[in-house]
Amino acid sequence: MKPTRVTNSIRSLRFAHGQMTQADLANRIGVTRQTVIAIEQGRYSPSLEMAFQIARVFGAALDDVFQYPDSTGETP
Amino acid sequence: MKPTRVTNSIRSLRFAHGQMTQADLANRIGVTRQTVIAIEQGRYSPSLEMAFQIARVFGAALDDVFQYPDSTGETP
DNA sequence: CGGCGAAGTCAAAAAACTTTGACATGATGT
DNA sequence: ACATCATGTCAAAGTTTTTTGACTTCGCCG
Fold first, then answer.
1. N or C end of chain A, less CB within 10 A?
2. Footprint of strand C on the protein (CB under 7 A)
3. What is the CA angle A57-B66-A46, rounded to 5?
4. Which band of pLDDT confidence, cut at 50, 70 and 90, is reported for residue A1?
5. CATH 1.10.260.40 at A7-67, yes or no
């Protein structure tokens, strides 16, 4: 699988919102626990739709939850 | 395919940036023309990574390029 | 100790996204 | 009229994301 360059603040946001568990978050956005785990760990970048749903649960903007590096210079 | 609820302003942004063509945009973000067409028409929502690349080409924030409806009331 | 909840791993199948290539249409220019 | 460019459609193959289910680990409570 292609590693993703997108990182996120989901873990912090979960704790900042009343110790919300991964399973809770998964239920709220209508996906499985597996998906939350994988995204939280940055295994791959989610679909834009899911990203919107996650951001909405936390009442945050997309750029507040997900970060994309500058891509200036990276030559893997 | 699942229809997406995410809309976007790509078409306007392309014109606002010097008549950039779909092929131009596709080249700049490293995808095919097909993908740009499909996303611009809202056939499906792109990956978050691609969304970031598109926004970056236009120098805009994600929420400036893509919109997600309120989802209050929809019961398909 | 034994049980429970939260987090994590693995693998295989399903669904969604992306690419490839071939072709059609309308507008523009020569 | 003919060529060209931008846009669009269709379908099949390829890749990434999401689901399903079974199984582990750690910390905590009773």
1. C
2. A 14, 21-23, 34, 37, 40-41, 47, 49; B 1-2, 4, 30-35, 38-39, 44-47, 50
3. 55
4. confident
5. yes
